[in-house]
Design a protein that fits this description.
Pfam families: Acetyltransf_3. This is GNAT family N-acetyltransferase. This protein has a single domain, classed as 3-Layer(aba) Sandwich (Aminopeptidase). 28% of the residues lie in helices and 26% in strands. It is built from four helices and seven strands; from the N terminus they run βααβββαβαββ. A hairpin with a 5-residue loop joins strand 6 and strand 7. The longest helix is centred in the middle third of the chain and has 18 residues.
Length: 180
């Protein structure tokens, strides 16, 4: 006769549902929405510590509209299920003289209240599909070495650390790559 022993195995974790996220080419109004949602010290910790002036976002959204028209991709405005602006995600040519010159960079920046819900990963996966469809064969993601949240997104996307750079501000930046 055998005796039954109680099971000590923990139940399998319930998978977190992928959030619904919509991406659109940024509008002129999105410059002000981006300024508002990025106006948080934690959001801007790795981007100078505070939101840029609205004029910077006006130029950035205009440049993204040009990228979309010319390249078929850009940093898109990210919207949640109710149509609220959460930030941006997308791709653009690496815009600096230092770093991975000539590469197509993917990136994301979200409102603080949107963190930890899967939006960045879901939107970045959509970005990868769109840039692949536009004929891009490889992307990079430049991430501050201390930015553990963004590094986690690169891992979920299957990206691998390729290089480390010292930024003009003296910080360490990791360059992750992914062949598409």
């Amino acid at each position: 006769m055998t005796s039954a022993t109680p099971s000590t195995a923990a139940p399998a974790p319930t998978p977190t549902p992928t959030p619904t996220v919509r991406l659109r080419v940024p509008t002129e109004e999105d410059a002000y929405a981006w300024h508002q949602v990025f106006n948080h010290p934690e959001v801007m910790e790795f981007h100078g510590g505070k939101a840029a002036e609205p004029s910077v976002y006006e130029e950035l959204t205009a440049r993204q509209r040009r990228h979309d028209a010319e390249l078929g991709f850009c940093l898109w405005t990210m919207l949640d299920e109710e149509g609220r602006v959460l930030g941006f995600t997308g791709a653009q040519p690496w815009p600096h003289a230092w770093g991975p010159a000539g590469a197509i960079e993917i990136g994301w920046r979200l409102a603080r209240e949107a963190w930890g819900r899967g939006y960045a990963t879901a939107a970045a996966r959509t970005t990868l599909e769109r840039v692949r469809a536009a004929g891009v064969s490889e992307v990079v993601a430049m991430v501050a070495a201390e930015n553990e949240r963004s590094i986690a997104v690169t891992r979920r996307l299957g990206m691998e650390l390729a290089e480390t750079y010292t930024t003009p501000s003296g910080r360490q930046g990791h360059c992750f790559k992914l062949a598409l």
